Amino acid sequence: MLKFRPIQLFANLLLGLLLVGCAGPKPSDYANEKPKLDLKTYFNGTIDAWGIFQDRNGKIVKRFTVVMKCSWDGNVGTLDEDFTYSDGTTQKRVWTIVKNGDTFTGTASDVVGQANGITSGNTLNWVYTLNLPVNGTIYEVRFDDWMYLMDDTTMLNRAVMSKFGFKLGEVLLSFKKRQ
HSE of 111 in the Cβ direction (CA atoms, 13 Å)? Predict the structure, then answer.
């Protein structure tokens, strides 16, 4: 007869959840996807974006647009982003991106430390911690950002926001490069 052992059951459940939490896509999963993403080519010029933020329950709590002015000097890029939110508020973020082969580092005034990214095929995975203001308090929130080049002018972006490993919500964006 099997004995019920609550502590062992709990430990096995916790271990299973931790293992599932570690699983996920890797940039190399997209190595053969086309068109190939060249960050210096795509993020050069003016890009318009439309986005939403969904909370952990899927409710849309913010809508926004972004105008990005992008340029490169050798392997150092500047992405100057102007956000306009549906409530009329605005925000500016200026990224400095450094390209080193298929890897990238980035800094911005509200990014803690530096962002780290890697391209593979049509995909960029960008991971960073952002100082996020919410109701007068600043929270350090982790972003796991995935961008997928669809064609020469269109890119889709999905970023999962988390704190202490718990999902807070998602940001979905559609980018359109001006011709």
Answer: 18
